[in-house]
Amino acid sequence: MSEESPVSPLEPPGLDEHAKRLARSAVEFHWDPAAINVRADQEAVSELSRVEFTRLRGLLAQFGAGEQAVTTDLAPLAVVLAGTDDQRYVATQLYDEARHTELFDRYWKRVIRPEEESRGLIPTDPMADRWSHDDYRELFDRTSNAMARLLEQDTSETRVQAFCHYHLTVEGILAQTAYRWVETRYSGELEEVPELPSLANGFRYLRRDEGRHVSFGVTKVRKLVNEGVDPEMVVETIDELVPLVETTIGQMIRDGSIGADRNEIFNRIDTARDRRLEQVGVVPSERT
Ligand SMILES: [Fe+2]
Ligand SMILES: [Fe+2]
Question: Could you read off the pLDDT of 100-149 as tens digits, one per residue?
């Protein structure tokens, strides 16, 4: 691991065309969670078996809590990034994450809660402990700590660690893999699972936003590695987190979940990990 080096607070503004383009794209592809009509899903959830309804609640609760966590964890980046274009970009990401939280919040209130009531179930809180588990919490706690550390010590290395937790792993491996699976699962392609069109639609918007977020993090890490941060730090940071991603997604698809072959999903996690490493200029070797 290389010696920690301070980051210059004097990044000249206006030079990061990539951040500027991403910020522009966020405006261009704006969408409104309140414009997604959930009526079709309100009817379709009633077709879900009790097990499948509980699975759906678990997925949405974890995704909603995850989006809530990343919304509050991103702020330190807005404090430490000095360039105007970076700040403009991060403002769009903060807004994206807040909007993602709203999407899950609305869906819970308008689709899940009424269905719980019509089934005679005790209404549940999506933030309740029953919907998460230790490894899930550990993954988000570590990410929160890596982001908060930027405020105590802003160096190239702490930035790489923050981006590796937040943009490369939570967004670039966990969200990209899980969101794609859910979007497919409720898109009507599977005979055994009722289509939830507004949910699948919402996930398409989410994935497009997350693609932008990952792209920002990847570009930043690649630049920092080019400037001298030890690439081994990237590999170590991501590989310490991947097992937590595996247990989180493993829990989501447990019990022979339809539309998810466990090996295939775990291969997708590995592929996403390799892809993120390649994108930052690190040749991926076998995970140890
Ligand atoms: Fe998000
Ligand atoms: Fe994101």
Answer: 999 999 999 999 999 999 999 999 999 999 999 999 999 999 999 999 99
Q: How far is the CA of 147 from the centre of ligand 2 (A)?
A: 14
CA torsion through residues 238, 163, 140, 198, sign: negative
- 166 C-alpha to ligand 1 centroid (Å): 10
Enumerate residues with CB within 5 Å of ligand 1 (an ion). 67, 97, 100
What residues flank ion ligand 2 with Cβ within 5 A?
171, 210, 213
Structure tokens at 72: 């509050």
Ligand that lies nearest to the alpha carbon of residue 213, given by its number in the listed order = 2
Quick: pLDDT tens for 22-58.
999 999 999 999 999 999 999 999 999 998 899 899 9
**H-only helix segments in 7-49:** 17-28, 39-44
What is the CA(19)–ligand 1 centre distance, in A? 17
CA torsion through residues 67, 75, 233, 142, sign: negative
| Single-letter residue type at 140 | F
Q: What is the chain's Cα-based Rg?
A: 19
Tell me, in angstroms, the distance from the centre of ligand 1 to residue 103's CA: 10
Considering every ligand atom shown, identify the ligand nearest to the alpha carbon of residue 74 and give its number.
Answer: 2
Cα–Cα nearest to 73, from 210, 165, 173: 165
Query: What are the structural domains of the chain?
Result: 17-28+35-279 (1.10.620.20)
Mean pLDDT of the chain: 91
Residue 6, pLDDT > 50, answer: no
Q: Quick one: average pLDDT of 87-94?
A: 96
